[in-house]
């Protein structure tokens, strides 16, 4: 069995146990070939980011009973799509990240130097 690694080269750590986050909804920001969004950046939500992503068509604040999604608020931990996080960075709205929980594949989209600036 393959062990997922984080952007620092260590074992990928769980990002959130209270919210079912990640592509597999297991709390890890892991991915596979079926995860077209690449939910691999372990982020901590901010009001600014939540408003930004809503303005881009991805409302993460509103609960959805259809998907058993509780809705997110500032301070919640969530595995974000790599390209959405990068877009938010480019517009000045990227939320903080937890590097130990961010999958190594994030480095295909964002440099470690940039991620380090948002480390929490």
How do the helices and strands follow one another from N- to C-terminus?
EHEHH
Helical/strand content category: alpha+beta
User: pLDDT under 50 segments (min length 5)?
Assistant: none
CATH superfamily: Protein of unknown function DUF2237
The tally of helices reads: 3
- Please tell me what the overall shape is: globular
Structure overview:
The protein is of the alpha+beta class and 120 residues long. The protein has a single domain, classed as 2-Layer Sandwich (Phenylalanyl-tRNA Synthetase, Chain B, domain 1), CATH 3.30.56. It is built from 3 helices and 2 strands, in the order E-H-E-H-H. The protein is globular, with a radius of gyration of 13 Å. The mean pLDDT is 94.
What would you say about this model in short?
The chain has 120 residues and is α+β, with helices and mostly antiparallel strands. It is 21% helix and 9% strand.
